[in-house]
Amino acid sequence: MTVNPTMILTAAVLAVVLALGSGWVTRRLLLLVAPRRLAAVFATLPITAAFGLLIVGIYIFVALFAPVLAPFAEREIVGTQFMPWDDTFILGTDSLGRDLLSRLIYGARNTVGIAFLITLLAFLVGATLGMLAATVGGWLDEALSRIVDVLMAIPSLIFALLLLTILGTSIFTLIVVIAAIDATRVFRLARAVAQDVVVMDYIEAARLRGEKLPRIIFREILPNTMAPLVAEFGLRFCFAFLMISALSFLGVGIQPPTADWGSMVRENAALITFGEVTPLLPAIAIALLTVAVNFVVDWQLHRASGLKD
Question: What is the model's pTM?
C-alpha cells in the first residue's frame, strides 16, 4: 500500500479525533463499572490517561492471546515476499513471505513481555539496593553509589551493545544486561526518596523497637515511597521497551525468527523507497505504546504530587 502526504495528514487528524473519542468513552465506562472507591479516582482521570489505559489494556490482551488472535503461526512462511494487502494477508507479507499481521501480534507478546520482565528485575534489584543504601548509610552507601556513578557514566545504548557483543544475544542475556543498566537509574531514585523517609520519627521508633533491617525497608520505607516508584516503573518500562526495539533494529536484540517490532522495521525497511507503509506499522506500534504509558505515568505523577487541576 503506497502513501502520500495527504493520506498521512488525514490519517493523523483522524487518529487524534479517534484517540480523544475513545479516551472519553473509556473514562465514562470506567466510572460506570468501577467500585465506589476506584470511581473516585477515575473521576479525576484525564482523557489522555484514559486513552493510555485503553491502549495498554489492548496491548496486554493481544500479548496474552496472541496464538488465538493471529491468523498464522509466528514463524510460518505462507506466501512470497512482500505480497500486497488483500483479504488473506490483511497487512501483506514480509521479506520472507510471513504474514505481517501475525508477526505484529506475536511481536506484542515478545517485545512487551520481555520489557516487563526487564523492568521488574531492574526494580527488584535497584529499589532494594537503593533503600538499603539509604537505610544503612556509611561505607555501603558510598560503595554502591560510586559503582552506580561509574555505570551511569557510560551511555546506555553503547554499554548494552558492548555487553551483548561480549556475552551473546540470547533472550536471557538481553534481559540481564538491560535490567542491570536500568537498575542503576532505579537505585538513584529509590535512594533519593528513601533518604527523605529514613529521618522520620516512625523509622527511629521502629529501630528502637528492635525491628530488623528487612522489615524496616519493606514495611516502613517502601509503602511511603511507592508513588514515585510506581511512576518510575512506567518510565523504566518505556525505556526498556525502546531499548529492546533499538537493539533488535541494530541486530543484537531479540534474534530471528522470533517476532520483534524493532527487527521487523529493519527487515522491511527496503519498502520505504517504494512509498509502502508496511515498515511503519511496527514503528507505529512501538510509538503508540510508549505514548500511552507516558500518558498514564503523567497522570500518576500528578496524583502523587497532590496538585489540583
Answer: 0.84
* Strand-pair partners of 93: 99
Tell me which residue range forms the domain holding 221: 5-305
| pLDDT for residue 2 | 52
Choose among 64, 52, 72: nearest CA to 108: 64
Per residue in 40-78, pLDDT (tens digit) is 777 778 888 888 889 999 999 998 898 899 888 888 888
Q: How far apart are CA 267 and CA 97, in angstroms?
A: 12
Whether the CA torsion 149, 154, 157, 159 is positive or negative: it is: negative
Q: How confident is the model at residue 307 (pLDDT cuts 50, 70, 90)?
A: very low
Residue 285's alpha-carbon distances to 51, 64, 262, in angstroms, are 15, 16, 10
Number of structural domains in the chain = 1
- C-alpha cell of residue 209: 523497637
pLDDT digits (tens, 9 = 90+) for 83-110: 878 888 888 888 788 888 888 999 888 8
In whole angstroms, give the CA distance from residue 206 to residue 280.
55
In CATH, what number is assigned to the domain containing residue 235? 1.10.3720.10
CA distances to 19, 25, 36, 99, 273 from 30, rounded to whole Å, are: 16, 9, 11, 35, 44
CB 199 within 8 A of CB 108: no
Please state, in angstroms and as integers, the Cα–Cα distance from residue 15 to each residue in 66, 202, 278, 280, 291, following that order: 24, 50, 18, 15, 13
